[in-house]
Amino acid sequence: MLAIDVKDLRKQFKVQKNREGLSGALKDLFKREYRELTAVKDISFQIPQGEICGYIGENGAGKSTTIKMLTGILVPTSGDIRVNGYIPYKDREKFVNGIGVVFGQRSQLWWDIGVIESFQLLRKVYRVSEPDFRKRLNELVERLHLGDLLNRPVRKLSLGQRMRCELVASLLHNPSILFLDEPTIGLDIVVKTEIRDFLMQMNKEQGTTILLTTHDLQDIEALCSRVIMLDDGRIIYDGGLDELKNRWSKGREIQFQFASHTTLDRLRQLTATLDVSWTAESDVTARMWLPHAVNVSDALACVVGGTEIRDIKIFETNTDDIVRSIYSSGSASTSKETVVS
Predict the structure, then answer these.
(1) 222 alpha-carbon distance from chain centroid
(2) Rounded to an integer, what is the distance from CA 138 to the centroid of its chain?
(3) What is the mean pLDDT of residues 197-203?
């Protein structure tokens, strides 16, 4: 069964176009001019239950707009959305009981009251029974180490502490789908790692479906097997993370440190049957570049069998570099704004 089913989803906004000068301001009083912005342009995708999917793109690509439509905050201009079988903006009351949402830059906790009081209020909002609430809360507090924070006002929490509390708040009613919009923004590496580990464990144990938007591609590498990439409101890639690397990566490099002077001619002879290239760094150090089509173990076997090696280092193109190269390549078209009055 599908957790999320999106077909030809589009969202347009009308933004007032302010004319310059006093005469322009007077004209705007009587006849306003608008420009039409299309934030999401007829996208389609499906996410099965239990999947962790990364939803990535540059600022303004349409990620947050999509999340807001999927959670019922915004109404689409056109297209069809089904989340847990519900249309988010129509079946609001039934729909919200099955989803949890964390917006990294917005809080669902009340600023001046204790964390536990916010949780109690959310229990009533989601109509969770007291026994179920206590059981769920105890599990989440233990996993995310929040025992000492429950009686503190939210305003006295650090960013990392608050984000862990936001996660608990979004999961108190045991939703089957979790939407995360920049959940690790501004956090240090220790807190990021804790949150990633928690999400992975929750997905494995409970089968929670997770849709994650983030600018931190280490989140994607740690959590997601699938990536949907957005550019200017359109999907330019939807597939596995490994496939993304194979498709866009420039390949891998292996650095060899040899026991004695080894010529490039000798190294080329050893790897003559492979589609690789060599560059020398010193008399005893050289780098071999190989595409993803060439198996690393085959390449190593050719070299190790004919030379004496002291050290080997393998360099893989990371996801950050790959994503940068995709956006800089201009592979996705850019649409123009349409002016309407």
Answers:
(1) 10
(2) 28
(3) 91
Write out the E strands in the chain.
2-17, 33-48, 52-57, 78-83, 99-103, 177-181, 209-213, 226-231, 234-240, 252-258, 277-280, 285-290, 309-316, 338-340
- Predicted confidence (pLDDT) at residue 172 exceeds the cutoff of 70: yes
- Residue 224 scores a pLDDT above 60: yes
What's the predicted TM-score (pTM) here? 0.75
Burial of 34 (0-12, 13-18, 19+ CB in 10 A): middle
User: What does the pLDDT average to over 179-183?
Assistant: 87
Domain layout of the chain by residue ranges: 2-246, 250-315
Alpha helix positions (H), 45-148: 63-70, 92-96, 115-126, 130-144
3-class DSSP state for residue 79?
A: strand
**H/E segment holding residue 218:** helix 217-223
Say which residues have a Cβ less than 8 Å from residue 69's Cβ, sequence separation at least 6.
9, 11, 40, 75, 76, 81, 88, 89
For residue 23, give the DSSP letter: H
**Residue 46: how many CB atoms within 10 A of its CB?**
13
Task: Report the CATH fold assignment for 250-315.
Answer: Alpha-Beta Plaits (3.30.70)
Other residues' Cβ atoms within 10 Å of the Cβ of residue 245: 17
Looking at domain 2-246, its CATH architecture is 3-Layer(aba) Sandwich (3.40)
pLDDT at 329: 64
Which uninterrupted H or E stretch holds 192?
helix 189-206
Beta bridge partners of 228: 55, 238
Q: Which residues contact 147 (CB under 8 A, 6 or more apart)?
A: 141
Give Cβ neighbours of residue 279 (< 8 Å, ≥ 6 apart).
264, 286, 287, 289
3-state secondary structure at position 236: strand
Residue 258 has pLDDT above 90, yes or no: yes
Sign for the CA dihedral angle at 270, 273, 274, 278 comes to positive
